[in-house]
Design goal:
Elements: E1 2-9, H1 23-40, E2 43-48, E3 56-60, E4 65-69, E5 78-86, H2 90-99, E6 107-112, H3 116-119, H4 125-143
Antiparallel strand pairs: 1-5, 1-6, 2-5, 3-4
């Protein structure tokens, strides 16, 4: 089973922000956690995200998509980073999430990543076949 751990925090808590923990301490704690994930063989990907001032929103107003540059001042919390894990069970995902070194004011949203089998009773067979082909192409690209 694959799970995504999504760290949500006020932008003021981002590294360098006025409410951020000391950078050295934060990097050391995250480094230890990431090393544990790698050593356990469960980490698929992990990244921190740049401030919302470097991002943009794409919305659709019924006429077409529009792009609005960040920062996203309306949001109370923003996604600060994520981990993708492959674990044996929901319980194992819970155990890893509890170990993540987040502090007060930070939320870790944990979501199971949908598998192809979740879509079998929902999507048409040709859509499932096309998706399987795309996933094979991505896997082949990763092996190069």
């Amino acid at each position: 089973m694959r799970y995504m751990l999504i760290m949500e925090a006020p932008e003021s808590m981002a590294l360098g922000g006025p409410d951020a923990p000391p950078a050295e301490e934060a990097f050391e704690a995250m480094g230890r956690f990431n090393t544990e994930l790698v050593d356990a063989g469960v980490l698929l990907a992990a990244e921190g995200l740049a401030p919302s001032s470097d991002g943009f929103l794409v919305t659709h107003d019924g006429e077409g998509p529009s792009v609005t540059d960040g920062p996203f001042t309306e949001a109370k919390e923003l996604i600060a980073g994520f981990w993708m894990l492959e674990v044996a069970s929901r319980e194992e995902a819970v155990q890893w999430a509890r170990r993540c070194p987040i502090g007060p004011g930070v939320t870790l949203q944990v979501r199971r990543i949908a598998e192809m089998s979740d879509l079998e009773d929902v999507a048409p067979a040709e859509v499932l076949d096309a998706e399987a082909t795309l996933r094979r192409r991505v896997a082949e690209r990763e092996q190069v």
